Amino acid sequence: MNKIVANADEAIADIPNGATLMLGGFGLCGIPENCIAALVRKGVSNLTCISNNAGVDDFGLGLLLKTRQIKKMMSSYVGENAEFERQLLSGELEVDLIPQGTLATRIAMAGMGIPAFFTPAGFGTEIAEGKETRRFGEKDYLMELALPADFAIVKAWKGDRMGNLVFRKTTRNFSSSMARAGNVTIAEVEELVEPGQLDPDEVHVPGIYVHRIFQGHDYEKRIERKTVKI
Question: Is Transmembrane tagged as a keyword (predicted)?
Fold first, then answer.
């Protein structure tokens, strides 16, 4: 089965207004730069975006925030984006801040078909409002629901036309779980190879989860915050 599409514009062509998207990466590391740019060009609106972060001004998801294409952000870290802050404080943007471990597990549970789980994170805080709680042993827990999405968009280091994906280091953090949790999974890769060229023991996401794949280009790979020791 050949899952290759020509480019990012073709890969995201059927994403409608109001869709829920997962976008992989960790901070600015391993984000699907080509697909984000294609979403800006397409002008799709009222998106709910699930991501570890909200990008920075003029890069990553910050590009979609700048063009007001995101209706709601579901993230665990949003501290590097002034436009995000402005939209949040003005009431233009809905925001669901989720503890990072809870976010990662909600995504993973969606990929495994498990509808809910219990976690101690957030108990006794605003996060617990309206949620079921239970006590196990001597500790209280919140019930959190799995978090699926209409589309999962990830960037991998290598992939083949069957959709098998290999990530590098930190880029794997959320992307491998997101690839399993989307109803439709789109992967852009730095290197597209023929089947059989990937070591099966190194494949992080089997191709059965991936619906479309293409070779990306012109990656900036920006560093979110550079620290230099003198």
Answer: no
* pLDDT tens for each residue of 179-208: 999 999 999 999 999 989 999 999 999 999
Amino acid at 132: E
pLDDT tens digits for range 86-115: 999 999 999 999 999 999 999 999 999 999
The distance of Cα 80 from the centroid of its chain, to the nearest Å, equals 17
Two tokens at 47? 């998106």
Q: Could you give the domains of the chain? A: 8-117+148-215 (3.40.1080.10)
Residue 195 identity: P
Residue 158: the pLDDT is 97
